Amino acid sequence: MTAASRLALFRTAPLAFEPAGPAPERIVAGDPAGVAADVHADGRLFSGVWRSSPGSWRVAYDEWEYCHVTRGRARLHEDGAEPVEVGPGDSFILHPGFTGVWEVLEPMEKHYVILLPAAAG
Predict the structure, then answer these.
(1) In three state form, how does the secondary structure of 25-52 look?
(2) Suppose 64 and one of 6, 53, 69, 115 were both cysteines; which one would form an S-S bond, judging by CB atoms 3.0 to 4.6 Å apart?
(3) CATH class held by domain 27-115
(4) Mean pLDDT score of the chain, rounded to an integer?
């Protein structure tokens, strides 16, 4: 997104991937290694591309996240609910308060939009 533009186009954005894997204490199984590249970031709203190798880890969301899977497969184990498998073409939203386990079954890529909570005060 250029300074004059109000459009963040994923397919033309220069992607600079940085490590974005789970903290070691959250890993449940495997050796998941993630990377992410923001297409847009303004301090509260982030969008971009995330990739991960197989493995599973605990998650606890206090933010909103919209995900669109572009390749690979994952299983979401929400605490107290049946697991849900997602793959290419699937889109979903994780609400604040979602807790459980992300399990990447096949190397995957997703596009994301994350909205962090409003600052208290």
Answers:
(1) HHEEEECCCEEEEEEEECCCEEEEEEEE
(2) 115
(3) mainly beta
(4) 93
